[in-house]
Design brief:
Helix content is 68%, strand content 3%. It has 320 residues and is mostly helical. It folds into two domains: 32-73, no CATH class; 78-319, MetI-like (MetI-like fold, Orthogonal Bundle).
Length: 320
Amino acid sequence: MSIAAPSLSPSRSPVGTVPLGARRRIRRGSPVTPYLFIGPFLILFAVFVLAPILVLAWSSTRQWILGFDSGGFVGSENYATLLSGKGVLSEEFWRGMRVTAVFTALSVPLLVTVPFALALLLNLRFRGRTLFRAIYFAPYVLGVAVVGVLWHFLLDARVGPVNHLLGAIGLPDATAWTTSLPAGWVSLVGVTVWWTVGFNAVIYLAALQDVPGELHEAARIDGAGAWRRLWVVTIPHMRGVLQFVVVITIIASANMYGQSALITQEQPGGATRTAIGYIAQTGMRSYDIGMASAMSMILAVCLIAASLLVNQVFRLVGKV
């Protein structure tokens, strides 16, 4: 006598399997599923990024007196005052913008190239490289207050160890690192590079480890030396990372405030006071929130323009 094999009905399935209809529902999912995943980010972005920008734009069109919005809507009057170049506020603000431009022009090339060279060295295989990576990144975990107070003491012209060390090796030992120019620029740029070099170096190091070793091996077989491999293999493969580092470094340098406020204390005579310093003084000391907001918006527009310019340059270089 033969026994017929049991047939499986569409409504029933073996243990461990999923019905066809359920599989289709799982595969398709719900239309709202993607929004549920990105929802927390959108909420945080709206609260901590979008809302402050909107409040800043709104404040820049109001007249604030002693911190109170008692002057009402003034439209573009604050912007017109700043862009006119006339008046104490406008002159001081554009003076701060020039100081910001000088610091950015001096610091960005170093903060792009020095970490890259450091990352190339730390990417080599040698004993203790993990320790060296930690040492170079360690200053970045310090706050700007710690860095500023520390280097203000080290660079003090009278009791600072830096001048004593320079005198001990026969170099000029009376340099006013924090109260004169151009020594003040050397102090600000040098300390900033020492403090933040590890951050960009870590980004470069991660990108270097992502470069396929087969490309270097093929170039080596073709007779390319170390410098040739750097220019034809490493840098083209890291173009996107280089673009990202240049943009974030420009933005960070243009927002420099703590170093000048603590190391040079904006000396001599406010010559190292950046645009952020004038914005802070206008908004937090003079309580002119409307004018400070307009200054911030102008600085933001300049940074957006600089970022777009950098992106365009990298796009053109990539086509060459």
